[in-house]
Amino acid sequence: MAKILIVDDDQTIGFMLKDILEFSGHEVTVSQQPRKTKENILKHNIELVLLDKLISGVDGTDVCAELREDEEVAKIPIIMMSALHNVGEVCKSAGATEFISKPFDMETLISKTNEILEKHNNKTS
Amino acid sequence: MDKDLRIKELERELAENKEQTESLEKQVCSYEESSANLKEEIYQLKDFLYSSTAQIAFLKGPDYRIEFANKSVIKVWGKGDDVVGKPLFDVIPEVRDQGIEDYLNKVYNSGEPYHARALPVEHNINGEMVKSYFDFSYMPHYNSDGKIVGVDIIAQDVTQQAMLHQKVRKSEKEFRGLVDFMPHKISIADAEGNSVFYNKSWLDYTGMTMDEFLDSHWTQIIHPEHVEKVEQELAECLEKGKDLDIELKIKDKNGDYKWHLCRAIAMKDDGITTSWISSSTQIQKLKEEEQRKEDFLKLVSHELKTPVTSIKGYVQLLQSILNSEKDNITKPYLHRIEDQIERLIRLISEMLDLSRIEQNELELHTEEFSLNEHVENIIEDIFHTNKDIQIELEHLCKCDIVADKDRIGQVIINFITNALKYSMDAKRVLVKVFYENENHVAVSVKDFGIGIEKKDLNRIFKRFYRVSAKNEETYAGFGIGLYLSNEIIERHNGKILVDSEPGEGSQFTFILPLNQN
Questions:
Q1: pLDDT per residue over B13-42, tens digit each?
Q2: For residue B166, is it within any domain?
Q3: How far is it, in rounded angstroms, from Cα B126 to Cα B131?
Q4: Residue B459's Cα: distance from chain center in Å?
Q5: Most CB atoms within 10 A, among A83, B78, B430, B479?
Q6: What region holds the PAS domain (chain B) (predicted)?
Q7: Measured between CA atoms, how close is A25 to chain B, in angstroms?
C-alpha cells in the first residue's frame, strides 16, 4: 500500500483512477490543480504521482520537469498519462518514470504502479 | 635642204595635229558617253526618288512651289501628278494651320534642318479629313552659290506604328488600372530579382510610397523567422528560373505580420528569364481557420478518448470486483459507467448534429409540453451528477409550449453546463422561466463566473469557438454547444440574447414564440 497523488483536470478520470487504485489497496488523493502538485506531495506524504499530460491548459511535462529540479520532491516516481499516443518520449525526457497512454488497461496501470513503487522502495531502503 | 627640212617639219606637225585631233575626237566620244551615263544616272535617281516609299518633295522659292513630288507624297496628299509647279499651300491648304508653314519658314529662313517624330497631320482626301503620323525631315535646298532657294521634304508615314504605340499605351494603362484595382499584391522584378514595380494594394498594405518601397529591401517586411527560408527559395528560383510558391508572414503598415501566399513566375524570352511577376494573397483568415480546425481535431481525439478511458477503467474494475466478491457495491460504479456512456453519446451526437446542420438536415420533432417541468427535470438530472453546485430556479410563469422537447432540453443543458463550467469556484446559477411579452416565453440562465469580453460576444456562437480565461486556460468541450443552441433556437423562430460583464458573469436567455405557427 502506498500514498498516490493523481493530477488530472478531468474529474471523472481522476475518480476512476482513484477507485481503481484504492481497490488495489492504495491511498489516493485527487487534484485538478497541477500547480499545487509539490504542495500536495508534501502535504499528503505522497509516494507516487500520476500526472496527466495536459491539465487545464498547463503542460504536464513542465510540471514534471519542475518537480525533477526541486530537491525536496525530485526523487518521487512520476507516471505520466495522455490521450495522445506519441508523446511518451517527450514525457520521459521531461523526467517521467513511466508513460501510459489513454485508454489504458487496469491491469497495466496496477502492475506498472506496483512495479515502480517496488523499485523505488528497494532503492530508498 | 631648207625645203626638205620644211616639208619634214610640216609633215611632223601634220602628224602631231592628226594625233591631237584623234585624241580630241576620243575625248569628245568619252564626254558624250559620260553625258549619256550621267543622264541615265539622273533618270535612275529620279525614278528611285519617284517610286520610293518615303514621301519626298522639293519645294522652291518663298511660296514653296512644288518642283518635285514623288508618287508616295502625291498619294498622301490625295492629288495627281499635276501638282508640280504649283505652290504647296494651294495644293494642300489644310496643312498650313497645322504648323507645317511655320516649320518650312524656319528652315527656309535659318538654314537649320528640322526633324520631327510621329507628327500627326490631317489631309483632306476627297473632302474627308484623314489623320496620319509622319517622321519628318525638312532640309534647306542650296543653289551653286550657296544660297537657300527652297526646302526639301523627306517624310515617312508611321501611322501604323503610331496607332500600335497608342494601343500599347492604352493596354498598359488598362493593365495598370487592373493591377491597382486588384486586392492581391502584385509586383514586378527584373531578371536579377530587384523589384521595379509594386501595385496599389502593396503600397496600401505597407503604407510606403513606390520610391520608399523600391528603395527598401524586401527582408524588411518579412517576418524574421521566414527570411532565411525565403532567401533560400528565392536564390534557387533565380538560379533555375523556377516558379516561387511560398507561404510567409508579411508586415503591414501597423507593424502586424499577416500570412500571405506568395507566388512568382519568371517571364522568359527564348528560355532566358527577363523579369519576374509576383502575386501575394493574404491568407491570414484561412490560416486562423485552419488552426482552429486542427485544434478542434486534436480536441476531438482527446475528448472522445477520455470518457472511453473512464468507461473502460470502470468496466475492468467491476469485472475484478465481480470476480472476487459477491457484493452489491457494484451499483455506484455501474452508475458512473452510465454517466460516461451518456457523455460519450452526447459528444458523438453533437458531432452528428454539427454535420446535420452543415448539410441542413437538422429536423425538429415538435410536441406540446410544460416548459417549467422540463427545466425542473433537467436541473434535477444535473444535480444528480454535480452535488457541489447551487442552482436556483424561479418560475415567473407557467407555460406549455409546442417545440422539439429534446432539442430545447439540449439548449437548457448547454446553458447550465456552460454557466457551471465558467463559474470557477462559485458554482451558483440562477434559472428563470418568464414571459418576455404576451407572445413570447423565455428561459434565462445567469452565472457569476468569468464573463465574456465584448470583442468575443459575437464570436461565441461560431462553431469551434472556445473562450480562453486568464493564463490561456481553456475549458473542456468541442466549442460547438452554443453554435448548436443558436441553430436550434433559430429553427424554432426564437432568438438567444447574451448579457455579460467580464469578471461579473453572464446571462444567456432564449426566447421562443408561444405560437409556432
A1: 999 999 999 999 898 888 988 898 999 988
A2: no
A3: 13
A4: 29
A5: A83
A6: 171-241
A7: 13
Domain end point (choices B324, B341, B358): B358
How many whole angstroms separate alpha carbon A34 and alpha carbon A57? 10
* Shortest Cα distance, chain B CAs vs residue A42, angstroms: 24
- B324 has a chain A CB within 8 A of its CB: no
**Edge-to-edge order in the sheet of strand B257-269:** B195-198, B185-190, B272-282, B257-269, B244-251
More confident: B293 or B170:
B170
Identify whether residues B61 and B41 lie together within a single domain: no
513606390: which residue's cell?
Answer: B210
Distance from CA of A72 to the nearest CA of B (A): 27
Angle between helices B330-358 and A11-23 (to 10 degrees): 150
Comparing alpha-carbon positions, the chain A residue that sits nearest to B470 is A57
Q: Within 13 A of B64's CA, how many CA atoms are on the CB side?
A: 25
Domain span at residue B422 reads 366-513
CA of B330: which chain A residue's CA is closest?
Answer: A19
Interface contact A20-B313, CB threshold 8 A = yes
The answer to whether A16 contacts B313, with C-beta atoms less than 8 Å apart, is yes
Alpha-carbon gap, residue B304 to B252, rounded angstroms: 41
Instruction: Say how far apart CA B371 and CA B379 lie, in whole Å.
Output: 12
Would you say B422 and B501 are in contact if contact means Cβ atoms under 8 Å apart?
no
B97-136 pLDDT per residue, tens: 898 899 999 999 999 999 999 889 998 888 889 899 999 9
Q: Provide, as residue numbers in chain A, all residues whose Cβ is less than 8 Å from the Cβ of B337.
A: none
Structurally, how many domains does chain A consist of?
1
**Overall number of domains in chain B:** 5
